Amino acid sequence: MLDLPLTFSQRAAALGTPRPWLLVLLHDVASNEHDFLPLVTAFPERFYLLSLRAPHRMGPGSHAWFDFAIPPGGNPVIDLEQEAQSRSLIVQSIVAAGLRLDIAPEHVVVAGFGQGGIMALSLLLTRPELMRAAIVWHGRLLPEVQPLQAEPSALQGRQLWVSHGTHDAIVPAVHAQSIRRQLEHTPIHTTFREFAVGHELRGSEVAATVSWVEGLATRQPSF
């Protein structure tokens, strides 16, 4: 049984799976760990799915990784203390799950949507030793986290999937395009895709992501 510092839901890998993978899922703001239930059947059974609940309660069934405000005509201002606390709790959860399930970091993928995507990217950049890859659905790169970025040598061999909706009015697609530009000079191998959707995950985007993840599972890590 898993004992983690965050509330979670899970789907175990199929019994007898040799060297299973761990997919850690991080939900958007104002949601919870059950947000990814529709994805349970989309990912192969070689993956142990672990969906974490953000620690900051906004209301019934509504949680956030950090609070933020958007001043008129300005950029979002985040609660740095909450973001750092959430990042630390996710790290503790990944480490504890990996040890309990006997899954090494090269078989760990961290994925998130919206604010969860922000956290997934921040974790890849600051704690790359914990994972093989990150998936960012409809997220952005926090400028506040960039000074904490690991050395280029630590990012070697890491993989990143970034996908976004061209009609996303909540997190405009320019943020995803900015991720690609800002990381192009790092050792991280980034795959970037856009889909004609809003701030939502539709079947075509999920299918493309799953195909990318399955590709990871057939290749040896380069670190």
Layout of secondary structure:
Elements lengths: L7 E4 L9 E6 L20 E6 L3 E4 L2 E3 L3 E2 L7 E2 L1 H22 L6 E6 L1 H12 L6 E5 L21 E7 L8 H10 L5 E7 L7 H15 L6
Parallel strand pairs: 2-3, 2-8, 8-9, 9-10, 10-11
Antiparallel strand pairs: 1-3, 4-5, 6-7
Q: Describe it for me?
A:
- This protein has four helices and eleven strands, in the order βββββββαβαββαβα.
- By secondary structure, the protein is of the alpha/beta class.
- It has one domain: Alpha/Beta hydrolase fold, catalytic domain (Rossmann fold, 3-Layer(aba) Sandwich), CATH 3.40.50.
- A seven-stranded mixed beta sheet has the order 1-3-2-8-9-10-11, with helices on both faces. The protein has a two-stranded antiparallel sheet with strand order 4-5.
- β8, α2 and β9 form a beta-alpha-beta unit.
- The longest helix has 22 residues.
- The model has no long low-confidence stretch (mean pLDDT 96).
